[in-house]
Write a structure and sequence with these properties.
This protein has helices at 16-23, 27-35, 42-55, 61-68, 84-99, 114-125, 142-145, 172-185, 201-216, 231-242, 255-267, 301-316, 343-349; strands at residues 73-79, 103-109, 131-135, 154-157, 167-170, 192-195, 225-226, 249-252, 277-279, 296-298, 324-327, 330-332. By secondary structure, it is an alpha/beta fold. Helix 1 packs across helix 2 (27-35), helix 5 packs across helix 12 and helix 8 packs parallel to helix 9 (201-216).
Length: 350
């Protein structure tokens, strides 16, 4: 056989029979793993997919469509952004789909309006995609999600509650409440909040979780300060909070803004965490290397991608009815949070 196995050279592309031989199964089993994986035992499926990766097998999509009526391509509509959350969500969806043998086509939008979503969906349908995931973190996306073509399998990620399609998202309220309760447990009398833009669904959920945690403990609820997710806006709002000696705990709605807050506090002579504790959200790869290392809320974007992909498979198989799946976030405690300063120490600094 001229097909590469391990480090052996390959002189022609791998075919279905090569995968079957390497995995020790029939060609029919390989076909089922690639086209209807839920019908195959997990152990067998894993062996076949390992063989697919080793041989770099690439299914003939045209032939697959003739046999199964499916193209083996999924579409993703997403806003064009370099922000960590949306970019990581997109990556998680893509990895989940590719891990199950699906190709992914992406329609990147400048904004999430009804017209832009319709245009993105139209582009993907022209490519004969089997189903579409729409990453919709803006309130403005709701109208577009309520006006989708009939019969098109669609799942949304980070969408609002009032949409007629299944939704997968991280439980933002829970993550924000955990961050706030952590700060209260350290003795802080209340927690200030630097939120994201007002039209972001994730930002709204984090505000709700923060506020509910404070109200449940009977604590004062400070004014919400809105940033734009950037370190610059965190720095600007951080300078405002740093000037108030009563501020001892800040929950920031993402790690990039938290980076700006840390700098503003240091420039104002406020020690972290001795004078002010700071919690972020996202757990970007750099968060552990901020100074001090940032306490933050980790979002499992890989799980979001897997849940979205599975919901889309269910819709493609004819499943009806809306569903809403929440992925649980995790509080990661590092050195940017500590016990609240004593009242005497605070009065002395003021």
């Amino acid at each position: 056989m001229a097909v590469r196995r391990g480090n052996r050279p390959r002189t022609r592309p791998a075919v279905l029979g090569d995968v079957a031989a390497l995995a020790g199964v029939s060609a029919m089993t390989v076909s089922r793993v690639l086209n209807d994986p839920e019908r195959v035992r997990a152990e067998t499926r894993a062996r076949v997919l390992a063989a697919v990766r080793e041989l770099d097998y690439r299914p003939n999509l045209a032939a697959r469509q003739l046999v199964t009526g499916r193209s083996g391509v999924l579409g993703v509509v997403s806003i064009d952004t370099t922000l960590y959350g949306p970019a990581s969500t997109l990556y998680g969806i893509e990895q989940a789909a590719r891990g199950r043998g699906y190709a992914v086509s992406i329609a990147s939008l400048e904004s999430l309006t009804r017209r832009s979503i319709e245009d993105g969906v139209r582009r993907l349908r022209s490519q004969a995609v089997d189903g579409i995931v729409i990453v919709a973190p803006h309130e403005s996306a709701a109208e577009g999600l309520r006006n989708l073509p009939e019969g098109l399998p669609v799942v949304a990620v980070d969408a609002g509650a009032d949409v007629p399609v299944p939704v997968v998202m991280v439980d933002q309220r829970l993550g924000a409440a955990r961050a706030t309760r952590h700060l209260l447990s350290l003795g802080h009398q209340t927690v200030w909040h630097i939120a994201g833009p007002v039209d972001w669904i994730d930002g709204s959920g984090r505000i709700e979780g923060w506020r509910s945690a404070l109200e449940a403990e009977g604590r004062p609820v400070p004014e919400v300060l809105h940033g734009d997710w950037s370190p610059r806006s965190g720095y600007r709002l951080g300078r405002r909070l740093a000037a108030d000696p009563e501020v001892t705990a800040i929950f920031v709605a993402n790690d990039q803004m938290a980076l700006g807050v840390l700098r503003a506090l240091r420039e104002a002579g406020r020690r972290i965490p001795e004078d002010v504790s700071v919690v972020g959200f996202d757990d970007v790869p750099e968060a552990a290397y901020y100074w001090p290392p940032l306490t933050t809320v980790r979002q499992d974007f890989g799980e979001v991608g897997r849940e979205a992909f599975q919901l889309l498979l269910d819709r493609m198989a004819g499943g009806e009815g809306a569903a809403r799946r929440l992925v649980e976030p995790e509080l990661i405690v590092r050195d940017s949070t500590g016990p609240a300063p004593s009242g005497a120490a605070r009065r002395g600094r003021s």
